[in-house]
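Reopening: structure tokens for the citrulline complex, inputs below.
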Amino acid sequence: YSFDAAIVRRPAKSVVKGLRADDGGDPTYDGVLAEQDAYIVALKAAGVDVHILPPLEAFPDAIFVEDPALVFTQGAILLRPGAQSRAGEVGEISPALKEKFQTVLDLPAPGFAEGGDILNTPQGVMIGLSSRTDLNGAKALQSCLSRLGLTSRIVETPEGVLHFKTDCSLLDDETILATKRLARSDVFYDFETVIVPEGEEAAANALRVNDVVMVGAQFPGTIELLNKLGYDVVPLETSQIGKIDAGLSCMSLRW
Ligand code: CIR
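Re-run output (same inputs, fresh job):
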């Protein structure tokens, strides 16, 4: 969670048509823009140099740059999104990554993997199987990761949850913030876990960056819990991006 740099992409007007599992209404473009503005300010305040890419009207979900690629200090990996409408985002982000990283690997076909399913921890990389990341993709990704010198293991995402990281985030070297439904599968056997309060499941998609933990502002129970545990919490509004199934990790690639 120690990061110097990040890539974000401005939302296009089409973001209001972003993918979602349950339709609770479209987000507004201005609302998404405002949430991202505050997010960029928070990243910079945390000491991160933020590289901002332009909007892509043809790809409503392209603001969620975390999904088409993975980045590590050792290099980047271009993925193969399981959502068909997002496949073209890979070619769009590739030039920026090739400019920033000496090593850029391509996830080989035919499997699929999205960055929202990948949790990088000091104990290794966790790859969650989901409706967007299949076993072929996860295994191919393990080979790419080992070429970068990284160890990994394949785990399950709870039924009906979009991405593995929809339900968890790293708080520090030995602690994970997670939903009860994910933590009870015991995937985090080598970590301490902090469970988000009932009804605040979406707060589990938090983001530790350097000294702070960014948490959805609409989750007071989680904010209080993390404050009590001594974390320096930065609350950020995520109710608009939440309407299209996104949280704080989705909006940047960090290294
Ligand atoms: C999607 O369904 O692909 C987008 N509407 C949300 C992506 C969220 N990304 C993430 O959790 N990493």
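The two ends are 8 Å apart (CA to CA). The chain has a mean pLDDT of 97. Marking as resolved unless the reporter disagrees.
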